[in-house]
């Protein structure tokens, strides 16, 4: 698999997965991971532009390569790929450090997420990169 996108290893978000997030197979729901991908992408969009309101308009193909388990420390690395007039595309890479196996890190998935900048009236607005 490819190397993580953020060479500084500074994730947009990092958290430990809890029992409330598991399915009946004992692994973390894919939807939980997707929601954190969305949050991490939003964090990067704000950091990159300084604009504070975005809505998600697309999340491109997401393939899970490894499961996530309770106790795993999951990192969501985000990087801006493209900035348009009103939209921004962010790539998010998800890695899990296995609980109890210090240092064992697996690539879980990655996704390309497209956000559109909006104003307080939920209307599209132009992005001005800081």
Question: Which helices and strands occur, and which strands form pairs?
Answer:
Layout: E1 13-16, H1 30-49, E2 54-59, E3 73-83, E4 87-97, E5 105-117
Antiparallel strand pairs: 1-3, 2-5, 3-4, 4-5
Could you state the order of secondary-structure elements as H and E? EHEEEE
Number of DSSP helical runs: 1
Sheet with the most strands: spatial strand order: 1-3-4-5-2
CATH superfamily: Hotdog Thioesterase
Shape: elongated
How far apart are the termini? 33 Å
Mean pLDDT, to the nearest integer, reads: 92
Number of strands: 5
Instruction: Please outline the major beta sheet.
Output: 5 strands, antiparallel
Strand content range: 25-35%
Structural class, from helix and strand content? alpha+beta
Bin the helical content. Answer: 10-25%
Radius of gyration: 15 Å
CATH class: Alpha Beta
Ranges with pLDDT <50 over ≥5 residues?
none
Work out the count of structural domains.
1
CATH-scheme architecture: Roll
CATH topology, by name, is Thiol Ester Dehydrase, Chain A
């Amino acid at each position: 698999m490819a190397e993580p996108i953020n060479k500084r290893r500074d994730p947009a978000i990092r958290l430990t997965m809890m029992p409330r997030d598991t399915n009946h197979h004992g692994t973390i729901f894919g939807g939980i991971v997707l929601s954190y991908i969305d949050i991490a992408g939003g964090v990067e969009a704000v950091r990159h532009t300084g604009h504070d309101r975005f809505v998600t308009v697309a999340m491109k193909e997401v393939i899970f390569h490894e499961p996530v388990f309770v106790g795993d420390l999951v990192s969501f690395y985000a990087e801006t790929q493209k900035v348009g007039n009103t939209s921004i595309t962010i790539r998010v890479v998800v890695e899990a450090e296995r609980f109890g196996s210090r240092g064992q890190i697996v690539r879980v998935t990655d996704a390309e997420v497209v956000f559109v900048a909006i104003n307080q009236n939920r209307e599209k607005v132009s992005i001005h990169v800081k």
